[in-house]
Specification:
568 residues, alpha/beta, Nucleotidyltransferase, domain 5, DHBP synthase, 3 domains, eight-stranded mixed sheet, five-stranded mixed sheet, globular
């Protein structure tokens, strides 16, 4: 059964295609239209996942959608004069959208009752007998954190700015039963006002001159340079209940925004960032601690945009009595298309069968593999190909201080570059952070991330059973062992931490081969890995994106599976 899963939201719109429990493809709309964190309807992503899988729209059996944004014409509750007005807007190209979860909450009806599925399927070019399924936002976040593990007991905890008008969810797997403790459809429209720590973090991001829902990672890095001088004042507005719910003392989100802007602008950027980071760590840790007291399990799955925060994830892993933490690699709203399909499969097959299909992820290379890369590069007179083993030559040039890009195989899914669309450099020179940020027109406060082979990870980093799986996807930070900090300064933050990616040869032979050759040449088992993109652009997707970066001197060379390329 082919399942097409879509998310059309204000940001991170995306599409995925499943064949039952197998992910065939997943692509974020931003990678296609080149607009960072792109929202709206994911038309290009739909076409791309179908292209990757080699199927047609007529082959799709199930359509899964989040309760996001749809054109108003697809809603069935309009009165006659409203329908006429929407028809005029359609003819003039000014159609408006409505958010499904708001409509459902306002009318007290299900998504299926207020939506014209037949018209929507027809406009998408899908068969009229395709089954349509609407997914719950937070359950879609949560389910991949369980499906991509082998846990028999776990707490699944989600947190974000808002989704389906809910900020958090708590789900418990125990004794073969998956129970929602908080945040399912019973809470749709009931959770406001509530304590969204994700929104609080976003408001401080905004107050400090960055873009909310995009630059929160900058605050995570900046926080290490400050002191949490505002923490006590910020904590006054939040409380954690005995059953792990975060609540706030504001009447609404706008009141919180106003107060947190005022607080953030009363301090230095560093101290404001440190304060809201400490607030986030306190609130989420306290909520989890109370949930674990009531439901003592040893494994926690995390998802939602809040858990893009690698410092928070470290606090959870290291300060709570847990055996393992796993963070969904596409933890933000791009992960909803994965969880939405899994939610449909859970409803279709039941929990027992669903649990039996689970597996641990080796990689998230779910995007396109562009077979025309070598032809396109070879036809460009401004590019030269260098003979020799790509891994060995790449390692040599990196050891000499050059900056290279790795562009090969299927593109990663999620916010992190994980060795398919990565920029690589030597970690031995701390100055590479500044020089590379200039070339990429970035302004970052956290060093670039390290990549390390699985066999070397524990020697260099504080890696153990609890955080190893999460570190495969660069979703958690940890301490760099003291004896290594001066040897690899480019990847060590001011607090002695790093956010490593652990890889195996099985999952990416070329990537692993470069690391092994670099270690043999330099004695360093680590490389710098940062995303292959320029400031405010998405990670490169097509070969022409890659060529443009090479011509613009963003990198010194590009390594593909077929060779190493430089400007001629």
């Amino acid at each position: 059964m082919l399942i097409l899963s879509l998310h059309a939201g204000p940001h991170d719109s995306s599409a995925a295609l499943f064949e039952d429990y197998r992910v065939l493809a997943a692509v974020a709309e931003e990678r296609m239209n080149r607009i960072k964190a792109s929202g709206g309807f994911p038309e290009q992503s739909i076409a791309e996942v179908l292209r990757i899988a080699g199927v047609e729209r007529r082959d799709v059996d199930v359509l899964v959608c989040t309760r996001g944004y749809f054109l108003r014409r697809y809603f069935t509750y309009w009165r006659a004069h409203e329908k006429l007005r929407e028809s005029v807007r359609r003819l003039t190209g000014h159609e408006k959208t409505r958010e499904m979860n708001v409509v459902v909450s306002k009318l007290g009806r299900s998504a299926y009752d207020v939506f014209d599925a037949a018209a929507f399927l027809a406009d998408l070019g899908l068969r009229p007998d395709v089954r349509m399924f609407f997914s719950n936002h937070h359950f879609s976040h949560a389910l991949p954190s369980l499906f991509f593990t082998d846990w028999d007991e776990a707490l699944l905890y989600t947190a974000d700015g808002s989704g389906d008008q809910v900020y958090y969810s708590h789900n418990l797997l125990r004794d073969g039963v998956l129970t929602n403790l908080y945040g399912d459809d019973r809470w749709l429209g009931r959770a406001r006002p509530s304590g969204s720590l994700g929104l609080a973090y976003g408001y401080v991001t905004e107050a400090l001159g960055f873009r909310m829902n995009r630059h929160e990672g900058k605050l995570t890095g900046l926080a290490a340079y400050g002191e949490p001088t505002l923490l006590a004042e910020m904590q006054r507005y939040f409380a954690v209940t005995h059953d792990g719910r975060v609540e706030m003392g504001f009447t609404d989100d706008l009141a919180m925004r106003s107060r947190f802007h005022e607080l953030a602008q009363s301090e230095t950027r560093e101290n404001a960032a440190a304060s809201v980071q400490a607030l986030l760590e306190w609130g989420i840790r306290e909520a989890l601690a109370r949930l674990l007291e009531a439901h003592p399990v040893r494994r926690v799955g995390l998802a939602g945009g809040v858990f893009a925060n690698v410092r928070l994830n470290r606090v959870i892993a290291e300060s709570l009595p847990l055996d393992e933490v796993f963070i969904v690699p596409p933890m933000g709203d791009d992960g909803l298309v994965i969880g939405g399909a899994l939610q449909f499969l859970l409803e279709r097959d039941g929990l027992h069968h669903w649990l039996a299909q689970r597996f641990r992820l080796g990689n998230v290379y779910w995007g396109g593999d562009h077979a025309e890369t070598t032809t396109l590069f070879g036809a460009d007179a401004g590019v030269a190909r260098h003979e020799g083993d790509p891994a060995a030559l790449t390692a040599q040039w990196l050891a000499e201080g050059r900056i290279g890009a790795l562009y090969h195989g299927r593109m990663e899914y999620g916010p992190r570059a994980l060795g398919a669309r990565s920029i690589l450099a030597s970690p031995a020179d701390a100055g590479v952070n500044q020089s590379l940020n200039v070339r990429l027109q970035r302004s970052e406060f956290m060093p670039f991330a390290p990549v390390v082979l699985e066999a070397d990870a524990a020697e260099v980093f504080d890696i153990g059973a609890g955080n190893r799986y999460a570190a495969r996807f660069m979703t958690i930070c940890c301490a760099v062992r003291p004896e290594w900090r001066k040897r690899i300064p480019a990847v060590v933050h001011i607090d002695g931490s790093a956010r490593p990616q652990i890889i195996s040869r099985e999952d990416n032979p070329l990537y692993a081969g470069i690391l092994a050759a670099f270690k043999e040449r330099t004695g360093l088992p680590v490389l710098v890995n940062t995303s292959f993109n320029v400031h405010e652009e998405p990670i490169v997707n097509r070969p022409d994106d890659c060529l443009r970066a090479l011509h613009e001197d963003r990198v010194d060379f590009v390594t593909t599976a077929e060779g190493v390329w430089t400007r001629a």
